[in-house]
Specification:
The protein is mainly alpha-helical. It contains 8 helices and no strands. Helix 1 (7-27) packs antiparallel against helix 2, helix 2 packs parallel to helix 5 and helix 4 runs antiparallel to helix 5. The two termini are 29 Å apart.
Length: 207
Amino acid sequence: MTAGASGTQRDCAALCIAVERRMAIRLTVGPVAGELFRVIDLLGGLLRHSRTVSGVWEMDPTLADELPGTERMREIEDFLALARRIVRESDQICPAEPTAPERRRRVWGDLTDLLIRAETLAERIVRVVPRRHNTVEGSREISRLRLATHADTLVEAALLIRSAVREALRVPTPDVDALRLAATADLVMQLAADLDADACISARQSI
């Protein structure tokens, strides 16, 4: 992991470490059999899926510059939330302590369902999150989508320019620079609208 890694990338790395530590602690409890084996096997599955998700930054290094909360990062953040829940619920299972059979069955049922969801989501993340960063078309697409996240800022800039030149245009023959600025504002406004439309299309295609 590089020094410029994103917060989400660091969270993925921290998750892998946390799961590894829990597996190591469980191995010190006693012979790996019965329910203890089930817990370690469960955590092992979660660790595999977590490493799979962590691998997307190697597949697409530009993700290190991706801000948390974007459409692309949201699926990884959903996986992290799911994985943390599996870790928390697996902590409730302690073979050395008596627990009501009904409660154990419920916890195991939940954990099994959660792990299946985590596996499905990890497979999807590897399929849809990395981009063709090493091609001209892919690089331009990434650049445009990043620009699209600032479409609202571009609209605000265009409105400010229009406000600044409004009075200068209220004459029979406006100054050339006033006309240029007005044209620039129109261009920026149209560009913002195009970027917003592209972002909507990209979001629908990722569903």
